[in-house]
Structure to design on (119 residues):
């Protein structure tokens, strides 16, 4: 049974940092792409970043390039999203999802973790 569990969300001031974690179980971790998505109130869910767990290839949305960094620890079966220079518009529920190694076809999702950027 595929399971993805996010953690690390919270309240942070503008300009601050948070690190989200996505712990995976129930599938062969090294054969997938793990993506981070976010959904703000009244907006559609958008892909923030994705990493191929096989070769480490990464991709980012333009809105987070240079501020967010995705990484993985295959031994811990965990993907991280380091978020720096946070802005109020980064406020959203952040989800991780498992898809193909090319970061498409995301079929398994975590429950989400709330990030609030506010002074």
């Amino acid at each position: 049974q595929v399971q993805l569990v996010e953690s690390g969300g919270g309240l942070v001031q503008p300009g601050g940092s948070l690190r989200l974690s996505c712990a995976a179980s129930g599938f062969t971790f090294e054969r997938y792409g793990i993506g981070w998505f976010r959904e703000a109130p009244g907006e559609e869910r958008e892909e923030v970043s994705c990493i191929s767990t096989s070769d480490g290839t990464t991709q980012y949305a333009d809105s987070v390039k240079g501020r967010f960094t995705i990484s993985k620890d295959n031994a811990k079966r965990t993907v991280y999203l380091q978020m720096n220079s946070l802005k109020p518009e980064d406020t959203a529920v952040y989800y991780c999802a498992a898809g193909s190694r090319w970061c498409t076809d995301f079929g398994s999702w975590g429950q989400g973790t709330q990030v609030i950027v506010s002074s």
Notes: The mean pLDDT is 96.
